[in-house]
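hi!! sorry for the late reply, been swamped w classes. u asked for the two structures so here they r. pasted raw, havent cleaned anything up. first the sequence of the first protein and right below it the tokens
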Amino acid sequence: MTPTGPNFPDGLVAHLRAWLGAWPPESPVHIVGWPLRQQPGWDGGRYPVAGVGAGGMVVLSVPPAAAEAVTAASRRVRSIEALAHRLPALVGRPGDNFGQGVFRWSTRPSPLPDAGEWVDATDPRLPAWMGPFNGPVLVAWDAEGRYAAGVGRKRHDDHGQELAVATDSAHRGRGLARRLVAQAARRVLDEGAVPTYLHAPDNLASARVAEAAGFPELGCSVYGLPTAS
């Protein structure tokens, strides 16, 4: 049994296997006990649950110690949504909320003009949210040399890099975000990885940026719990 969703490029398959422990899913809710769920992630935090779904099937990656219990619970349900309310407690995080977002990727970023320059994430001109990124970040400056918009890369592994973008409120509506995302995606591809882009289902502004930058909506989802310290 394999998902009937979109075809995943080889680099993205390699990323999902490294990040989740398996791809494609072999059952509607395919549970993997994966040591990476107990190890520091791209920002030093721990992400005890991670999953990606396509075509009505999901690979859900959990700590190895929780895999048996989560697998047993998944056999009694037909969908990830039916498992969602039980999952936090099964992985030892009963107070957390299991979340779902939109999962996108691009192998053909839009040919938009570049809008920023690459700088070190420790540059003192940057806002605090860009500090944790594990590599250079892409920034557009205003006429006075102040931060206007930026993209950070979450370098999960050698095969996949997740892009995150934010624009200062005074500079929104000028197309900076989409240009920066497309520019960053081209660099990720040049480095031999696949760029991904995640956002909440109701974040329409982020969805518009993704579409304009060349990250189509293909009906795929991402799942997880909040970061654990």
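now the second protein. again sequence first, tokens right under
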Amino acid sequence: MGPQQDDPLGPLPFILALQPVLQSLESDLKIGFLDDVTLGGDIETMTRDVQVMAGLGPRLGLHLNLNKCEIYSPDATLD
């Protein structure tokens, strides 16, 4: 189900479904490109936003792949 592999318009339905979600997130930095999302800001806000993204499965059929998620902190502290 869904678009065929290598279909140039394949990402369009995903992007259209994800756009309102990205606009509703509270992180300072929100970037969506194809099926990747980058968030930036304080850890508490990003945590809430990731929980919002993780909760989309039942509503939109989107599932967060935790194996591909990363946290980067230039000072390596997450307090």
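hope this helps!! also noticed smth abt the second:
The first helix runs from residue 11 to 24.
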